[in-house]
């Protein structure tokens, strides 16, 4: 049975690349009915950020990447690592120096392993491998010791980890071997690159999973996007739920070239998943981004008209602003040459109408268009500019009813006054 793990360090917000690693490990295990485990690598106490472990749990749960057993916490296993270090000293594979334990590198050897993601053998000459510290003088292990010990104890069969760990792999191969442990299959996905060049990093902007969520990206969209950054199915399909990703996951789909973070593509995914939501579902999702004092009913009404324009949940406030407050200054150049006649007619309809349905109200406007012999496009263009402050709006009749007849009438009168 395949057993994989996700092993983050609680040193801050989760990197989007770490989310990808977790998703790959989850899919690799679940595709074959295996198990996905979680380990918190918290032995670097100086770098640990308070509350990060709980945030790791929360983020994984939001993406439904649920682990199968109790998480392994490295700081709770110090005696186990210390015992392993003693075994290495006793067998002559490590040496104690000033309270720390250092790995001894055998001379004249070739150290190799098969990377199942890169799908080729990787090797090093032992003289090129540094004698790494395994146990620090404070009794805490380094990653080089804790990782092999934990993966053995947890029964891990496949390791998927960031490509930045590839240069350290010969150290880990030696530790596995010297402790008498079977070496799991190890794979390193390609690195996600920044559009401006180089590796995607915190120094270059937003790479935090939590920040993407706070900016209004849906978990299902972000997950769908990130799993395709370095992996592709045989049929090149793009849309995957988590269950579908697990079903169709194939390690042969890993790509050798480094993907470049494509924010336009991420926005496309997010817009797609937003439009799959019902108006009621979307109302609940955008509420966290609404600063204006409007009711759920108003939000739902507005959502129904602007859903196709939403790229992120955080866009709602800006797109909804014409419904909530009128434009103070309307650009007069946006009006057509027949604006005065159109707006006077629109005001007349709004003063007398009893219609509460878009079709009924629209019929009244069309009668006026025929009477005035004005172009339909010009008539409704002037109406959009006067009521919504823009030439490009959601359906204007429906928008008028959501804003309310009295408020819409007042906006039209204000526009007429501005035109003189």
TrEMBL record:
Cellular compartments per GO CC: cytoplasm
EC number, as in UniProt: 6.1.1.17
Family: Belongs to the class-I aminoacyl-tRNA synthetase family. Glutamate--tRNA ligase type 1 subfamily.
Catalytic activity as recorded in UniProt: tRNA(Glu) + L-glutamate + ATP = L-glutamyl-tRNA(Glu) + AMP + diphosphate
Annotated ranges, domain Glutamyl/glutaminyl-tRNA synthetase class Ib catalytic: 2-94, 99-268
This protein's name: Glutamate--tRNA ligase
Keyword Nucleotide-binding part of the UniProt annotation: yes
Molecular function GO labels: ATP binding; glutamate-tRNA ligase activity; tRNA binding; zinc ion binding
Segments forming domain Aminoacyl-tRNA synthetase class I anticodon-binding: 281-416
Gene for this chain: gltX
Localization per record: Cytoplasm
Gene Ontology biological process terms in this record: glutamyl-tRNA aminoacylation
Pfam annotation, one family: tRNA-synt_1c
Presence of the UniProt keyword Manganese in the record: no
Residues that, per the record, bind ATP: 202
Source species, domain of life: Bacteria
Keyword vocabulary terms for this entry: Aminoacyl-tRNA synthetase, ATP-binding, Cytoplasm, Ligase, Nucleotide-binding, Protein biosynthesis
Motif ('HIGH' region): 8-18
């Amino acid at each position: 049975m395949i057993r994989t793990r996700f092993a983050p360090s609680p040193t801050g917000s989760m990197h989007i690349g770490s989310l990808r690693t977790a998703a790959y490990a989850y899919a690799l295990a679940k595709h074959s009915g295996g198990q996905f485990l979680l380990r918190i690598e918290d032995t670097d106490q100086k770098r640990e950020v308070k509350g990060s472990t709980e945030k790791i749990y929360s983020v994984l749960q939001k993406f439904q990447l649920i682990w199968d057993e109790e998480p392994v916490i490295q700081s709770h296993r110090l005696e186990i690592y210390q015992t392993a270090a003693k075994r290495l000293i006793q067998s002559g594979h490590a040496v104690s120096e000033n309270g720390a334990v250092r790995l001894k590198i055998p001379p004249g050897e070739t150290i190799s392993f098969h990377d199942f993601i890169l799908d080729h053998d990787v090797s090093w000459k032992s003289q090129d491998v540094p004698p790494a510290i395994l146990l620090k003088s404070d009794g805490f292990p380094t990653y080089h010791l804790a990782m092999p010990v934990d993966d053995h104890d947890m029964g891990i069969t496949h390791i998927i980890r960031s490509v930045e760990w590839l240069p350290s792999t010969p150290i880990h191969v030696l530790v596995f071997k010297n402790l008498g442990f079977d070496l799991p299959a190890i794979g390193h996905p390609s690195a996600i690159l920044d559009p401006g060049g180089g590796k995607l990093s915190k120094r270059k902007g937003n790479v935090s999973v939590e920040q993407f969520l706070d900016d209004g990206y849906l978990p299902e969209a972000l997950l769908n996007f990130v799993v395709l950054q370095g992996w592709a199915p045989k049929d090149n399909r793009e849309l995957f739920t988590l269950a579908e990703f697990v079903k169709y996951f194939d390690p042969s789909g890993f790509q050798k070239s480094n993907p470049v973070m494509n924010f336009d593509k991420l926005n496309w995914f997010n817009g797609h998943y937003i439009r799959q939501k019902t108006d009621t579902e979307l109302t609940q999702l955008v509420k966290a981004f609404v600063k204006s004092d409007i009711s759920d009913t108003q939000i739902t009404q507005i959502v129904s008209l602007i859903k196709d324009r939403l790229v992120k949940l955080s866009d709602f406030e800006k797109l909804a602003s014409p419904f909530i407050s009128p434009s103070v200054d309307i650009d007069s150049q946006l009006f057509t040459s027949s604006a005065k006649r159109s707006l006077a007619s629109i005001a007349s309809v709004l003063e007398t109408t009893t219609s509460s349905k878009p079709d009924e109200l629209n019929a009244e406007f069309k009668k006026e268009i025929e009477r005035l012999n004005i172009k339909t496009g010009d008539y409704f263009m002037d109406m959009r500019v006067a009521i919504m402050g823009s030439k490009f709006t959601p359906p204007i009749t429906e928008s008028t009813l959501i804003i309310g007849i009295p408020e819409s009438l007042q906006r039209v009168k204000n526009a007429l006054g501005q035109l003189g």
